[in-house]
Amino acid sequence: MNDLRIPQPAATVIPVRGGGEGFEVLLLERHPDLPYLGGAWVFPGGRAEDGDYVGSNRVFSVDAARRTAVREAREESGLALSPDQLVLFSHWLTPPGLVRRFDTRFFAASVGTDAGVRVDGVEIVSHRWMRPAEALDLQARGGISVPPPVFVSLIHLSRFLDGASLIDTAFAVPSPRYQPRLIKAPGGVCSVYQDDGAYDHGDLIRPGRRHRLWMLESGWLYEGHPSSSTV
Q: Which residue blocks in 2-141 are alpha helix, DSSP H?
């Protein structure tokens, strides 16, 4: 049995439809009774399986991650993608100390506006195509719950003017790598990323570069932007 405290290889795909202004991304609602992220809204994705590797090579390469993302998209949403559609968007490592940890590559993929979505009704109970800003507004008002990597991804997605520039930029710019450190804060917790000034010393008040996600009872707030030090 896998020790879930050790990061498990995983992959996620962000389906994007509509090349012009107002492009949308696909979010899936997980069944509320699931022990992990029950009721959360996520992008299609999951842990790697044996068939995602080639031969006896157990290295979770980018190619293996692409196969994982394609399979998960098909299983969770019915979308038929090919590995060459996927553009590396980001790379996330779950912080130490959490019960389940994943080493996850996020990909973006442009799909047609007529792409049909079919959820299984078991693990995934519903879906919605939403503009990133719309999803963030719903989260702020308590309409949906999203995990931190999805929230940060939506922040960055909302900064693109259109779907085409999103894909083009993902092709041209190295994808950021996030290795969060969780620090307790009044009213909640702060997820601090490598290029934040508090990453090493843990002092959230000391002046310095900010790249963090405040997850407070009063709401979530993202500060900063990934730099080359997170790549």
A: 62-77, 132-140
